[in-house]
Design goal:
alpha/beta, Helix Hairpins, Rossmann fold, Alpha-Beta Plaits, six-stranded parallel beta sheet, four-stranded antiparallel beta sheet, 10 strands, about 15% strand, elongated
Length: about 325
């Protein structure tokens, strides 16, 4: 942004400075005036304010003034047109970018909305981007929202607790909402607003004070995550199981492949219903690896299910793999 301003305005500043320098030096040399008198005469001449001459001019001084007027008018006109174009182009560019962004948002389906672009929100954005999931951010801070837009992400500048902003983000078509605002009060209001607009949403909210957990859940949050609690578990794991935590860190931070735990639901009309898991379970590293199976009734998990285990509709496969492997598995399952 600053580089663009410098590129546009530097020539204007140099031209105006050159006119002032030439005019001042001209009056000093031709008329023998002081530097201040020469600068003052140059400014009132270029600005065409109509003041009288600082001192009586000679014939040579008047001829010089004539050329200074034409040159100064040209310089001022160029400066004015450049500044006007810069302002109008900037505003027009912002309008067109917002219109293009809203058009992209209008085309989204089953996307995610992130209420708040702070530290927690940024981590969520990075994760959704790595796993190729569409999302829209609602951020109140204008500079932060613009920074997110400059990264190519869909970001709306506004209050995430307002219905208008949530509707602009496509809340009626969204799959879920993350409420990660600066305090629990704002998160409660954001949850209430999102739940009121779309009762089918899955809403996950950040929790700052554990005493507010019940309020967030009563407000409509499906899940509440305490940053302090997760941080404490992470620190304990770093101490007692460093190798396992190291593996998870490598998996999350790997810039070459986005290996993640994912879930793959089995629909009622899936072609693999009634067939053994062995037809899907990856053992050679070429497919997503099935780690567990969640039963359709009771939500019980069966870890490392047998390859002979027949699959049923409405079960959920818990797998690990990169986005393409998971996508291929969902295609085979018909999810």
């Amino acid at each position: 942004m600053f580089a663009e301003i410098k590129e546009k305005l530097l020539p204007v500043i140099l031209i105006l400075a050159s006119v002032l320098l030439v005019g001042t030096v001209g009056y000093v040399v031709i008329e023998g005036w002081s530097v201040f008198d020469g600068l003052y005469m140059t400014i009132i001449t270029v600005a065409t304010v109509g003041y009288g001459e600082t001192h009586p001019l000679s014939i040579a001084g008047r001829v010089f003034t004539i050329f200074l007027i034409f040159g100064g008018l040209g310089a001022v006109g160029y400066a004015f047109s450049t500044l006007t174009a810069f302002i109008i182009e900037g505003e027009l560019r912002d309008v067109l970018r917002r219109r293009k962004m809203l058009s992209k948002i209008a085309a989204l389906r089953k996307h995610y909305i992130i209420c708040g672009g702070g530290n927690t929100g940024r981590i969520i954005m990075e994760e959704l981007a790595k796993t190729e999931r569409p999302f829209v951010v609602i951020e109140k801070d204008e500079e932060r929202a613009k920074h997110l837009q400059d990264r190519g992400w869909l970001a709306i500048c506004g209050d995430a607790m307002g219905d208008e902003e949530l509707e602009s983000a496509g809340v009626h078509r969204a799959h879920g909402v993350f409420c990660v605002l600066a305090n629990d009060r704002d998160n409660v209001f954001a949850v209430i607003s999102a739940r009121g607009l779309n009762p089918m949403l899955r809403i996950v909210s950040e929790l700052h004070d554990d005493s507010v957990r019940d309020k967030l859940q009563r407000s409509g949050a499906d899940a509440v995550v305490s940053s302090g609690f997760i941080g404490g578990l992470r620190m304990a794991s770093e101490m007692i199981r460093p190798a396992a935590v190291g593996f998870m860190d490598h998996m999350i931070r790997d810039k070459q492949r986005a290996i993640r735990f994912e879930e793959v639901p089995i629909p009622e009309d899936s072609p693999i219903v009634g067939k053994p898991l062995g037809e899907l379970k990856g053992s050679q590293g070429g497919a997503a690896l099935v780690l567990a199976l969640r039963e359709r009734e009771g939500g019980r998990y069966e870890f490392n299910p047998s390859p002979e285990r027949n699959l049923e509709a409405a079960q959920v496969l818990v797998v690990i793999g990169d986005p393409q492997q998971v996508k291929d598995l969902k295609t085979r399952v018909g999810a």
